[in-house]
Design brief:
- There is one protein chain.
- With 148 residues, the protein is of the alpha+beta class.
- It is 18% helix and 14% strand.
- It contains three helices and six strands.
- The strands form three sheets. It has a two-stranded antiparallel sheet with strand order 1-2.
- Bound molecules: protoporphyrin IX containing FE.
Length: 148
């Protein structure tokens, strides 16, 4: 590890995943029993890796002609951590997210209500959230006859 992606550290008071002794990394002193996380936000917004990192642009993960997923770029997104303590649920999570999203997108059509807008300003926390949005609507793509 040992690169700037690790900084700044989140210090928390969980007893798991903590430093077993005091140490120094890239000039930062880290006391014993400090819970350390990778700063995934920094990696996923690194301008050296991503063009306009702040822009929501799912097409960035497609090949130039838009017909294939660009796996190489997809693998640069850091979602499941790194190293010894990386997520052990990654495979389950990837399948869950895939099934959940594809089922929703297949069955429902999402849109912003007339006159509404979506504010993607992130709310900071251990994980980023968006602001509550009340201007979304979801309509069934294939309404089932006879079902209320
Ligand atoms: C989209 C869903 C998920 C995301 C984004 C995610 C992300 C992460 C990340 C970033 C870490 C590392 C935290 C660190 O740096 O210490 C982690 C650890 C972990 N995750 Fe996940 N995770 C997800 C789903 C799951 C699922 C479904 C399971 C279990 C079935 C799971 C089990 C764990 C466990 C047990 C650890 C701790 C590993 C260790 O400390 O050795 N995660 N996860």
């Amino acid at each position: 590890i040992g690169n700037s992606c690790l900084l700044p550290f989140f210090v928390c008071f969980l007893r798991e995943s903590v430093t077993t002794k005091a140490t120094a990394l890239n000039g930062y002193y880290i006391p014993k029993d400090t819970c350390v996380f990778i700063n995934q936000w920094q990696v996923n917004h690194d301008e050296k890796l991503w063009k306009d990192p702040e822009t929501f642009n799912p097409e960035r993960f497609l090949s130039a002609d838009g017909t294939k997923v660009n796996k190489e770029d997809g693998e640069k997104v850091l979602a499941f951590g790194l190293g010894k303590r990386r997520c052990i649920g990654e495979n389950i999570a990837r399948w869950q997210v895939f099934l959940f999203l594809t089922t929703l997108l297949q069955q429902l059509e999402f849109s912003v209500c007339e006159g509404g807008s979506v504010d993607m300003t992130p709310l900071y926390g251990l994980s980023l959230k968006h602001k509550r949005c009340e201007h979304f609507q979801a309509r069934q793509r294939f309404p089932t006859k006879g079902r209320s």
